Amino acid sequence: MKIGVVTFPGSLDDVDARRAATVAGAEAVALWHGDADLHGVDAVVLPGGFSYGDYLRAGAISRFAPVMETIIKKAGEGLPVLGICNGFQVLCESHLLPGALIKNHHRKFICKDQPLRIENNRTAWTSDYDANHEITIVLKNQDGSYVADEATLDRLEGEGLVVARYLGQNPNGSYRDIAGISNERGNVVGLMPHPEHCVETLTGPSTDGLGFFTSVLKAVVAS
Amino acid sequence: MARVVVDVMLKPEILDPQGKAVHGAFGRLGFDGVADVRQGKRFEITLDGEATEEQVAEIRKAADTLLANPVIEDYTLHVEGDQ
What's the family (chain B) (predicted)? Predict the structure, then answer.
């Protein structure tokens, strides 16, 4: 079982994502933005950071990287893809997920431990959580405010595609407190907070993030 | 060499935190009578040659796919000198 983690110019959390994959029991494979070959991985993580310096819009330029052409095609065929933070922004810019992420409404960078509720545990990345499981993982972002038109928000909620919601005070202005969403098939998930930083007690507020990585192992074995 | 200008703005219903920050600074600096500020992006694209219909159509395609995100932004495009 191989989990590939893409490194774009300006990615920051690719090493932690590879470590989380390893802690979960997978073989972590480093993927390069300029290489369209996925090297036989069973799932892909698009990590956090500031790819291309967030120039133009966060994720806007990464979307056109050679590796993304393959990922967009394979995601359509069911490849599990998790976009964390900047990776979530790339997924929205790629139109693999609806909506967009804009600057935090208070205009400040956030870095805190954030409680969330996992509202959809039927995706490839969340099956190891109980329904409405409450977890606390790291949130750190600048462009973390999830926006979409009312019809899209209604559809996401109506079809149960909201994967995670912020608990307590809304940290960044995201519409309807949305922290993460998935596509209809449940193989593509975008999440603003960082599960990869929360897999070991030494360095995170919890190990609540590990479930994303153990879930995908089971999803791949089951398919 | 012709120049095509693309102006990108956040859609009116999308919150613009940067515009809000600028608006706040207006007030602090004593520039009164300002109801709202919205911040956008302007791209000045210099072509190799003339702004033919085909060339402008290409730039429009670039605006649709790269320069603006239609989920949150609108854009206008004009050839400089045309207006």
Answer: Belongs to the PurS family.
Structure token pair of residue A103: 């600057």
Q: Is residue A89 within 8 angstroms of chain B, CB to CB?
A: no
Interface of B with A (CB under 8 A): 10, 13-15, 17-18, 20-21, 66-67, 69, 71-72
Give yes or no for a contact between A42 and A82, defined as CB atoms under 8 angstroms apart: no
**Interface predicted TM-score of the whole assembly (ipTM), two decimals:** 0.84
The CATH number assigned to the domain with range A2-222 reads 3.40.50.880
Size of chain A, expressed as the number of residues it contains:
223
Task: Provide the 10 A C-beta neighbour count for residue A73.
Answer: 12
pLDDT (tens digit per residue) in A192-211: 999 999 999 998 899 999 99
Beta strands A27-32 and A2-7: pairing type?
A: parallel
Going from the C-alpha of B83 to that of each of B5, B40, B58, B80, the distances in angstroms are 11, 20, 20, 7
Q: What angle do CA A105, A109, A111 make, to 5 degrees?
A: 120
CATH for the stretch B3-79: 3.30.1280.10
Full-model pTM: 0.93
Neighbours of B7 (CB within 10 A): 16
Question: In Å, how far is B72's CA from the nearest CA of chain A?
Answer: 7
pLDDT in tens, A79-105: 999 999 999 999 999 999 999 999 999
CA atoms within 13 A on the CB side of B80: 13
Asked if A56 lies within 8 A of B67 by C-beta distance, the reply is yes
Domain ranges (residues) in chain A = 2-222
